[in-house]
Amino acid sequence: MLISVQALRALAAWVVFGHHFTQVFFEFEVHNPLAYLFADKGGIGVDIFFVISGLVIFLATADKALTPWQFMLMRLARIAPAYWFYTLLMAVLVLTVPSMFPDAELALGHVLLSLLFIPAENPGGYGVYPLLDAGWTLNFEMLFYVLFAVALLVGRSYRLWVVAGLLYLVCCALSPALDLASGFYHNDIVLEFLMGIVIGMLYQRGWCRARAWLPLSGIAVALAAIYHGADVPRALEWGVPSAILVISCVTLEPYFQGSRILKMLGDCSYSVYLIHVLVLAAGRWVAERNAIDPYTILPVCIVVTALGAYVSYQWLEKATYRPLKRWLGVEDQAIISRQKY
Predict the structure, then answer these.
(1) Are 283 and 101 a contacting pair, CB within 8 Å?
(2) For this UniProt entry, which segments traverse the membrane (predicted)?
């Protein structure tokens, strides 16, 4: 179990929480230095997620004879139930408490497309987003899963090149030519999945080993690059530093092993990602009606998100995923590795 990846995944989820706090309560117009840092840089949590996704999907299939169909069923079983639940919960809240989501509009067709992970213009008029806004990243995830499923038809050593070719075909050729989902997939962020696959290949071959000073230096360099930024495509500005963070944490794995707390934080990170915007919207709604300062209600939002994510992981994610996994007869190896240090 790569506890280092779990820890980084948890950190990424809470960085995104901080980013959306500044959006929901302040529309990114913040002057506190720490709040400004989250507003300006907090979106990088998504890039870290994408790199980690490439890594764990490679490791999930490296030592398993999975068919493309089995792989897709496993991924759907892991991702879809919780996302469907919170998407439908938001639909209910929009219907019953519309003032909680003043920019949201319900349209049956859009809700169905959201549940099917198909990008579509949000009826609220603010771009190509599903009903549960945070789900835009899952549309990219599902595309990656489909393409990786095709790559399972070739040998492990060729999968990186097959996925790279398919991503280029879909995102750089077909998407702009056919104007797929208003060009949604024509985004260099997809390259971050490939970065994760490369890290998975290096780890599988035993090359992610070094004295602690080297990965710690890598983390420092990555954080400095994130802080200063650059006028370059996102895959370079945030994707490369994210990849450096991931490979540095993987290299530090011996120092993370055995931490149950970090493992649990990582386990709950997906639910944190799904529910935090709902909690923040509810927090803003309560704060506005009771004249509560946003920074006063922030700790309440953090606690509710953390507790809600734990319950969600235990009673929603595990309750649906594990029975489906047993029914499929395939062990989940998304963050499992047999490499010994």
Answers:
(1) no
(2) 42-62, 83-101, 134-153, 160-178, 184-203, 212-230, 236-256, 268-285, 297-316
What gap in Å lies between CA 3 and CA 264, rounded to an integer? 9
Give the tokens for residue 284.
């803003």
142 belongs to a structural domain: yes
Structure tokens at 277: 């915007």
> Cα separation of 161 and 169, whole Å?
12
CA 133 – CA 275 distance, rounded (Å): 11
Nearest one of 157, 144, 99, 104 to 289, comparing CA atoms: 99
Domain ranges, residue 121: 3-328
pTM greater than the 0.90 cutoff: yes
Q: How far apart are CA 187 and CA 209, in angstroms?
A: 32
Residue 8 in domain: yes
- If one counts the domains in the chain, the total is 1
For the CA atoms of 328, 331, 333, 337, what is the dihedral angle to 10 degrees?
Answer: -160
- Considering the domain boundaries, does residue 339 fall inside one? no
Report yes or no on 266 lying in a domain.
Answer: yes
